[in-house]
Every structure is written in structure tokens, then in C-alpha cells.
């Protein structure tokens, strides 16, 4: 099972997991969160985030999701990446997380592709969906 680490601003990751739990009907396993606040030192967060990665990596890899490219959480997430073992995507949203959770028994590269497409395909202008 692919582990999922969400590195986000404040409690955004908590809200995503709470909503995903509501949609799926259960609390997803092997999901950890790092909420970054303005008072946090990014250098101090890296070791804690690496420890969370270790906890959720069952040997299949970990997907790191972050909310906004270029911000402190994504800069932290980028430093955690290990190609083929720890992959990352930005722009985290509920459709992206649901897709990642749904396909996490697949290989890591498949989960990355499914989550990315789920996030992208979940952004539509209301009224255009038929």
C-alpha cells in the first residue's frame, strides 16, 4: 500500500483527510499530515517529515501531496523526494486525494498519475458538466 504524506498550510491537510474520510466512509490508513504555520522553521520540519515518511512506507513507496507550488510546504515536500520511492505532487484537492486513496494498491507511478489526473479533472466550471 502506498503511504500518503500531506504537507500543507495550517490545517488544510486535516480538512482534506476529514472530507476524504466522510466520502469513503472510513479513516484512511497510512496517511500522515504536516501542517506548516508562519511560525514554523522549515529546517526543523524536515526531520519530523522524514520520520513520518518512514512510518508510512510499507515498501511500496510514498506519495507526498502539497497544496500550492512554490510555497513553504511545497519547498519542504520537494526536499523529501526520492525518485521511485517518494514522489510528490502539488495542487492538492479532494478529488486528487480520493483518487490517490482509491488506487494506492497500484504501483507508485500509477498512483501519481491517477491522483494528478483526478485533481486536474476535478476542476470544472459548474454548469459545463453534462
List the helices and strands and how they pair.
Elements: E1 3-9, H1 12-24, E2 31-36, H2 42-56, E3 62-66, H3 72-80, E4 86-90, H4 94-102, H5 108-121
Parallel strand pairs: 1-2, 1-3, 3-4
Helix pairs in contact: 2-3, 4-5
What does this structure look like?
It is built from five helices and four strands; from the N terminus they run βαβαβαβαα. It is an alpha/beta fold and 130 residues long. Strands 2-1-3-4 form a four-stranded parallel beta sheet, with helices on both faces. Helix 2 (42-56) crosses helix 3 (72-80) and helix 4 (94-102) runs antiparallel to helix 5. The chain is globular, with a radius of gyration of 14 Å. It starts with a strand and ends in a 9-residue tail after the last helix. The mean pLDDT is 96.
Descriptive tags:
single chain; 130 residues; alpha/beta; 4-stranded parallel sheet; 5 helices; globular
- Distance between termini? 34 Å
User: Major sheet: size, sense and barrel closure?
Assistant: 4 strands, parallel
Mean pLDDT value: 96
Radius of gyration: 14 Å
Shape: globular
Overview in brief:
The chain is an alpha/beta fold. It has five helices and four strands, in the order βαβαβαβαα. The chain starts with a strand and ends in a 9-residue tail after the last helix.
Amino acid at each position: 500500500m502506498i503511504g500518503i504524506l500531506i504537507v500543507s498550510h495550517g490545517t488544510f491537510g486535516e480538512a482534506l483527510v476529514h472530507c476524504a474520510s466522510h466520502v469513503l466512509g472510513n479513516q484512511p490508513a497510512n496517511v500522515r499530515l504536516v501542517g506548516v504555520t508562519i511560525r514554523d522553521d522549515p529546517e526543523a520540519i524536515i526531520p519530523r517529515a522524514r520520520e513520518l515518511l518512514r512510518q508510512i512506507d510499507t515498501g511500496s513507496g510514498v506519495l507526498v501531496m502539497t497544496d500550492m507550488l512554490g510555497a513553504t510546504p511545497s519547498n519542504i515536500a520537494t526536499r523529501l523526494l526520492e525518485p521511485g520511492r517518494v514522489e510528490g505532487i502539488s495542487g492538492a484537492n479532494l478529488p486528487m486525494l480520493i483518487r490517490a486513496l482509491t488506487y494506492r494498491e497500484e504501483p507508485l507511478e500509477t498512483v501519481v498519475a491517477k491522483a494528478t489526473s483526478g485533481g486536474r479533472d476535478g476542476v470544472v466550471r459548474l454548469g459545463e458538466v453534462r
